[in-house]
Amino acid sequence: MKEVHEMKIIDRVALITGGGQGIGKAIALTFALEGAKIAVNDISINEVKALETVEELRKLGVEAELFLADVSQEDAVNNMVVKVIERFGRVDILVNNAGINRDGLLHKGNLAKWEAVMAVNLKGPFICTKAVLPSMREQGYGRIVNLSSLTARIGIFGTGYYATSKAGLIGLTKVTAVENVTKGITCNALAPGYINTDMMNKYPEDQLKVLISKIPVGRFAEPKEVADAALFLAADSSSYITGAVLDINGGLYI
Ligand code: NAD
């Protein structure tokens, strides 16, 4: 029987930041299974895991390459995008997935944490978006998917730095959408709740149990459940959806 790819991204070139593990890796594998070519970005300290991800992608029979760069460093990102275009000929899809989390109460404000989180979670997507937009605008096609968070939608205790960065990312999403809508480019955000990755696994067991007890679905999501939503927004067929924020939270915020 002929294979049917309803979410069409065959031969599209996807650059996925922080693609070495967690949600980014799940997105890379999901896109690859639909026939996309994958540029995996990650930082050098995560090179080993990122190379493993690239190997897994190649085993699926798709073209995949690792591009090490810190998304908060403009020169490194610009250089990376040049190399991705040299290797694959174009960038069709950018997933701004790389992110970090630092908890802390705002009244005890820690500027170093604030700056670290803003650099990766907000400045990073701005730099990456800016780097891919000229070629996307020229080719008249682009899909940008930004990983925001439930924390941008509701006030969650102790998440001040992270939540502010992820709310800012929704602003970036909407303006990117409106400024590029006539160029065949869409830009949307995902707002995941609690997902089973290293980012969550650092919390103690009893704290995780309390969190799970508050989720109507009764569990954390698997990274693949976020990746499927990313696929939907990255597909050719989502051409009429732009500037949207898609919640993926098991009913925690409706
Ligand atoms: P993770 O910590 O498992 O993976 C993050 C990846 O980003 C890693 O590969 C890491 O090396 C990379 N990275 C970190 N800093 C980087 C930098 N400066 N440049 C390039 N790469 C960098 O996290 P995850 O849970 O997979 O989260 C992925 C995204 O989803 C993040 O933006 C996160 O904020 C968001 N998110 C996660 C959850 C969750 O519950 N896990 C919920 C909502 C949103």
Write the layout of secondary structure elements.
Layout: E1 13-16, H1 22-33, E2 37-42, H2 47-59, E3 64-68, H3 74-88, E4 93-96, H4 111-139, E5 142-147, H5 160-180, E6 185-192, H6 198-201, H7 205-213, H8 223-234, E7 245-248
Parallel strand pairs: 1-2, 1-4, 2-3, 4-5, 5-6, 6-7
The structure holds nicotinamide-adenine-dinucleotide.
Question: Would you kindly provide a brief summary of this structure?
Answer:
The protein contains eight helices and seven strands. With 254 residues, the protein is of the alpha/beta class. It has one domain (13-247): Rossmann fold, CATH 3.40.50.
What do you see in this structure?
With 254 residues, this protein is of the alpha/beta class. The chain has helices at 22-33, 47-59, 74-88, 111-139, 160-180, 198-201, 205-213, 223-234; strands at residues 13-16, 37-42, 64-68, 93-96, 142-147, 185-192, 245-248. Strands 3-2-1-4-5-6-7 form a 7-stranded parallel β-sheet, sandwiched between helices. Strand 5 (142-147), helix 5 and strand 6 form a beta-alpha-beta unit. The longest helix has 29 residues, at 111-139. The protein starts with 12 loop residues before the first strand and ends in a 6-residue tail after the last strand. The mean pLDDT is 96.
